[in-house]
Every structure is written in C-alpha cells, then in structure tokens.
C-alpha cells in the first residue's frame, strides 16, 4: 500500500515542470525561468524563446493552409510570428514584474543596459528592441522561402513549440501508476454515467445576497469593462445552519498572497471584502468573433464534508462565462469549477427556441432541443434553460451551495425583485490582478508556473493521477482548465459548437 501511495504522489508531479532548455544561452529568459516568473498560459518556441504561444495561437495553428498558394501561406506564417512575438513581449512584461529589483539590476549591469531610474522599464525596453529585431530577421527569412520551404519551415516551427501544461507529462504519469489505471478509468466511467444531470432548486434555509458594487482601479483598463459591469451576476450564497467549519469559508472575497518567498507563499481570501474577478475574451463561434464575459470567484477553503473528502483543501472557486450574441446580449452561460470540474451549460430560452425551430424533435434521452449527443465523449450537462437571460430589466442570479461551493443553478430575476438595500455589494476586479498580486518589492502570481494555485494541493489530485490528469481537483489559472476529466479544453473556441446542437447563425449577424 505504501508503495502504491508513493507512486501516486510521485506521479502527481511527473513530467509537469516546463523544460528549461529553451532558455539556454539567453540570460534574461534564464533569469525569468530560475525566478519562477513564467506564466503557464504562454509556452515558448524552443529555439526562439522570444516567440510565445498561448491557447489562441495553438488553435490558430490548426488552420495553416498547407495546400494554399505560397504567398497565402507566407502571410499566414508572418501573421502567426507577429502575434507570437507580441505575446512574447507581453509575457516578458508580466514576468519582469515578478522578479526582485536587485536581480534585475544585476542582470542590467552584466548586460551593459543603461538604467535611468526604473530598472524594469529599461530592461523591458532593451528586451523589446531585441525581440522586434529578431522578428524582422525571421520575417525576412520566411519571405525568402520557396514553395516547399514554407511547409518545412512551418512543420519545424510548430514542432518547436513547448508542450502545454494541459498535456505535458500525461503519459509519464500513467506509466508511473500503471497498476491503478484500470480502476481509476472505471471509476471515471461510472461517475460519468450516473451523475445527476437535471435541474436543482436552490432551497436555501440560510442565505446571503451579493450584488455588483464598485470596480477596482485596474478594472477600468479592461477591454469592454462596461459589459462586464452591465452583466455582472448577483450571487446568492448559502450558509450552513450549523457548520463544523468556520463560517468564513463560505464567503468569497478578494485574494492576496502572503509570505516572503514564492516557495512558502500562501494564498488568502478575505471574505470581509467580497469580490469577483472578471475579464473579456473573444472567440470565433460559427464563423463570427463573439465576446465572452468571464467571472471568477474564490473561497478561502473547501472544508472536509465527510471523514474522507478528497476535494477538501485550501482555496476553492467557480467560473461563470457569459457568451454574447451579435447584439451583445447574453445567449448562453457556462459554469465550471476553477479546477475544471462540474462543467454545465445553461442556454437561454431564445437559443432553445431557435434550436427547436431547426430540429423539431429532441434527441433520445434529452430534455432540450439544444442538447447534443456525442459518440466519442461525455455529453454536456444541460440542467435547465434561463428564460429572460437577455432582458435588460432582469439580472442573472447565481446560487452557490455552502461547503461544496458548487453552482446550484442560475436564474434570471427581475431587477425590481432584488432588494439591493439588504444585499451586500461586491467589488468587480480585473482578473489580471490575480496574476500580479503585491508581494514584497515585486509582484507575484496567485498561480505557480504550472498554472496551479500556490499551496492548494488536495488528495484528489493524487488519487486521480493514474488517469493522466495533472493535479485533478486543484484550482488553476485561466486557459489551463480542462473539463470532463480532461476530455476537452474549457477555452476551445469550438467548445459550444461541439457540445451543443447549435442552430445555424445562432451567433450570426441579427438585430
């Protein structure tokens, strides 16, 4: 038994660390890597670390027009390089904030960089100039390639992109825990077949209502923040009548990082200052670029609700994503735990009506016309519709359970029925703040370089290692969440198109 447990614990981390070979020979990249200042959202190109690739670029790479005329392929490659270089500079800007000023000063002195007051700004400027020069040289190289050379270049470029944390080390973990693989896979299959997929009523005996209040200073720098503010949800939080854990654990709030070193840093959630963290992203859905409003909340702790509760551990939280239609009105809401578990879809009544017009009959075993059946993966959980979701006179209300901190359901409630006078206001923060929290003389991310919340390990991550999942159940950073036991990426642009039976042009131009 002890051997098996040891194997599980070892496998939990096997193959997860980002290889640092890409930084060899580049003093600044090496400094960033050694300081633990990298970001899991960005992966470097091994031989050109000034190029950084995020999920959006990984999906864009799938569209490379291999059979297109040479000049079209050249334009595609050049655009990809420009975007990757821009992301590389953005990632470096964030990384430099996470490095001690003295370490940057030492680097600048060694590299002969003149410092005029702000060492971070001077190092960033020098890096930017070097990165842009490298891009210009790379674009010149690409422009000189012939027909077959373009495809060879693209193959080599994409092969050099470092593996994402979403998949890195999966095989290693499975091999390290091979004897337990059939058991865990059987448990996952049973779990997927028997989980309840219907609606749940929010019958809370004791609850507290939170309404959108002010904005943090950084939120006003967020693109389209006015939409985040307009559609920010009302939160109804259940409180246990006689909890055997501190009541504060059921209070979501603002996040801080305490400690003197990253190795010992401890995250903290202040329930006395209720807060949601939001950002806007854009996704191509049905050929149309659409806005998605993302709201994230954090609790200080997931309490142990039974003698053995593998989900118990520090920090807990939830993500709500509202996808807007062509008229920037909510059309569908998705919800998922911050670890990637419990993914659910709540379509608007309008979207269901459009689906019913296209497909008069529901699929066997489905309650709604919008529901899809997939032969190669678990079907999406669609508990119920949200009537009136796009009505400007109504507000989206999210109900969260005590202890489990799970989304129970969503409702669209008339604004006049919400008693703001007795409700508690929360502050809407920019999600970026989580990735640059004050930490001594620098900034630090709530998330470690592998995308996991610092110091938030729980038993579940070790128990599910044989599945290949990386720290299952561990809360994590945006763009690193996988759903349904890693069957799909929460940030896949085609996620809604895969999991729902969307009617044509549901997200297309209309008024």
Counting structural domains, the number is 2
Oligomeric state as shown: single chain
The spatial strand order of the largest sheet comes to: 11-10-9-8-7-14-3-4-12-13
Distance between the termini: 63 Å
Structural class: alpha+beta
The percent range for strand residues is 15-25%
Largest sheet: 10 strands, mixed
Number of helices: 13
Instruction: Write down how many β-strands occur, each being a DSSP E stretch of 2 or more residues.
Output: 18
Task: Identify low-pLDDT runs.
Answer: 1-15
Helix content: 25-40%
Shape, per Cα inertia axes: globular
Whole-number radius of gyration? 24 Å
Mean pLDDT comes to 91
Describe this structure in words.
The protein is of the alpha+beta class and 511 residues long. It has 2 domains: 21-159, no CATH class; 178-499, no CATH class. The protein is built from 13 helices and 18 strands. It has a 10-stranded mixed beta sheet with strand order 11-10-9-8-7-14-3-4-12-13. A hairpin with a 7-residue loop joins strand 5 and strand 6. The longest helix has 28 residues, at 70-97. It is globular, with a radius of gyration of 24 Å. The model is unreliable at 1-15 (pLDDT under 50).
């Amino acid at each position: 038994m002890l051997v098996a447990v040891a194997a599980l614990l070892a496998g939990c981390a096997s193959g997860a660390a980002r290889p640092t070979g890409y930084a060899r020979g580049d003093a600044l990249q090496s400094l960033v890597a050694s300081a633990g200042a990298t970001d899991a959202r960005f992966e470097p190109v091994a031989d050109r670390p000034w190029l950084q690739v995020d999920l959006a670029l990984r999906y864009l790479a799938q569209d490379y027009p291999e059979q297109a005329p040479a000049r079209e392929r050249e334009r595609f490659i050049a655009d990809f390089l420009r975007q990757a270089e821009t992301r590389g500079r953005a990632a470096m800007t964030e990384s430099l904030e996470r490095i001690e000023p003295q370490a940057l000063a030492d680097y600048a002195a060694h590299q002969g960089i003149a410092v005029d007051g702000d060492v971070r700004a001077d190092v960033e400027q020098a890096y930017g100039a070097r990165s842009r020069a490298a891009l210009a040289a790379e674009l010149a190289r690409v422009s000189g390639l012939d027909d077959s050379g373009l495809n060879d270049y693209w193959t080599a470029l994409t092969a050099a992109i470092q593996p994402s944390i979403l998949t890195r080390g999966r095989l290693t973990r499975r091999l390290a825990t091979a004897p337990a693989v059939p058991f865990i896979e059987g448990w996952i299959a049973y779990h997927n077949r028997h989980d309840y997929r219907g609606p749940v009523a929010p019958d809370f005996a004791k609850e507290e209502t939170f309404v959108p209040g002010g904005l943090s200073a950084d939120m006003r720098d967020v693109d389209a923040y006015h939409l985040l503010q307009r559609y920010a949800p009302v939160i109804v939080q259940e409180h246990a009548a006689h909890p055997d854990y501190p009541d504060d654990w059921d209070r979501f709030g603002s996040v801080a990082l305490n400690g003197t070193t990253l190795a010992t840093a401890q995250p903290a959630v202040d329930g006395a200052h209720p807060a949601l963290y939001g950002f806007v992203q854009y996704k191509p859905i049905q050929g149309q670029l659409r806005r998605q409003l993302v709201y994230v909340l954090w609790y200080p702790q997931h309490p142990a609700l039974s003698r053995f509760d593998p989900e118990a551990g520090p920090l807990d939280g939830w993500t709500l994503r509202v996808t807007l239609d062509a008229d920037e009105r909510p059309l569908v809401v998705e919800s998922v735990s911050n670890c990637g578990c419990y993914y659910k879809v709540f379509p608007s009544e309008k979207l269901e009506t459009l689906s019913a017009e296209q497909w008069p009959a529901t699929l066997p075993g489905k309650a709604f016309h919008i529901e899809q059946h997939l032969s190669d993966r678990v079907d999406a959980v669609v508990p119920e519709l949200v009537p009136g979701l796009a009505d400007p006179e109504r507000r989206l209300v999210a109900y969260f359970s005590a202890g489990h901190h799970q989304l129970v359901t969503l409702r669209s409630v008339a604004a006049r029925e919400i008693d703001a006078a007795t409700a508690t206001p929360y502050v809407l923060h920019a999600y970026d703040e989580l990735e640059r929290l004050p930490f001594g003389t620098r900034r630090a991310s709530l998330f470690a370089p592998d995308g996991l919340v610092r110091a938030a390990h729980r038993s579940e991550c070790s128990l599910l290692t044989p599945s290949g999942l990386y720290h299952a159940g561990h809360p994590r950073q945006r763009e690193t969440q996988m759903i349904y036991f890693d069957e799909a990426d929460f940030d896949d642009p085609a996620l809604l198109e895969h999991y729902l039976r969307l009617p044509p042009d549901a997200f297309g131009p209309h008024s």
